[in-house]
Queue: 3 jobs
Job 1
Amino acid sequence: MATGTIILIVVAAVVLVGLVVVGMRAARSRRTEHRREEARELRGKARERESSAEDARAAADEQAARAQRVRAEAEEKEALARRNEIAAQQRAGAAERESAAAREQHDRARAADPDASDSGYEEAVALDGDASSNGHGEPRTASGSADEHAPHEADEGVAGSEPEPASPEERR
């Protein structure tokens, strides 16, 4: 073989090796670029999911805060209802004590008054009429009649006689 042919084969081999090296570098570069593009897409998706998760977290925090406010309002209303209930019970107790004291005073006045009837029936009717008035001096009745509180003959036993006293104090 001639020297020229050997040189030509060597040059061709070097060019071929050079082309293979350049081709391999180009392929590696394309793979690297492809991986970079894939990594960018994954990072973008990760940012989107992170943003979505942050939105969901914020919404959950808002909902928890609303629930806490509603719970606090409910507890406040419950406490107010308890206070009102206690106040109503105290007022009812005070009213009952006041009513009992008034009955006692009426009983003492009736016992001291020589002109008062012994039964106190008329006084009870008058007091009942005052307690059941509608605020305009008129008794509250279903039928609207004023004689609803008047004794019935069947209640009196005998027409025109006083009903019999119920307690020993009323018998005096």
Job 2
Amino acid sequence: MVLYISIALNFSMLDQIKQVTDTKELCQQYIGLDFKKKGNRYWTLCPIHSESTSSFCLYPDGRLYCFGCGAKGDAFDIIGAVMGLSLPEVLKMVAADYGLVSDYSTDQRREISCKITAQRKQINLIERYRQQVEACYIYLLGKYWETKAIEQSVKKISDLNNNYVVAAFELQPIINGILDLLSSEDIEEQFKGLLWAKEVKLWKEQA
């Protein structure tokens, strides 16, 4: 009986909140999503997983879906997933901010807000790091094929005295080693690859 009463109260509060808010507004306010309209839908970066291309979609009926990781639901589901809160906890928080009944104090809401900010910063740092690794890998892969082209241009022994040829032969094993590290799924190995590339002046961190 207690469970049914709790569910009924949650749905009652949910209806009240839906009357004074909309999905885009809630997602912008609580988890900082910046939607861009394309056609009749809105798109943004997914708050659940790290990505560089917007795959998180807001449909006209208020449904949310990520084509990257499969996350889906309404605003309350997504807010709860990002903030680590249950549906009742999300409802109480939103209700307080919109002048409805809530058990959350101002300090508790501030603590939750700080937690979101920290999570967003972490997601942004991870995404920036991933982009650095990817950009470095692509750049060095191009350099590798440049050295291979120089190597294949050698026709006679005297060509080996050419400075460009010598440099190409010296760079090949270094570039190979760095590419192996960057292609690893281990973040520490990727970091070693970035450091190595910087040390031998083959890569400069992008702004």
Job 3
Amino acid sequence: MTADELNEQAAGWGLRARAGGVEWQVRATPRAPRNAILGQQAGATRIALTAPPVAGAANAALTEYVAAVLGVSKRQVRLTHGSSSRSKLFQIEGIELEQALRQVQAASSG
């Protein structure tokens, strides 16, 4: 896969390379029956969460889920924008764009 193809595919999932890791744009849906990646939507990944959007519970659950999907520790995941919104931006340290894309695609397919 060429760099342009990688960037294009990753952008559909809301993934972008940045120094030392990636950024991941997600759209959260709280109070779902299970935690799951639902697909792509307007340059972001739609993620369902069982946690309610109360007192930061959904943000904490989403941070844990992002770490689990990408195979990194929770310390490497930081919510940088959208703490009170369904649209959120995470910065994840220590992972390459290609690896992140493979992990997200694998998690979305089942």
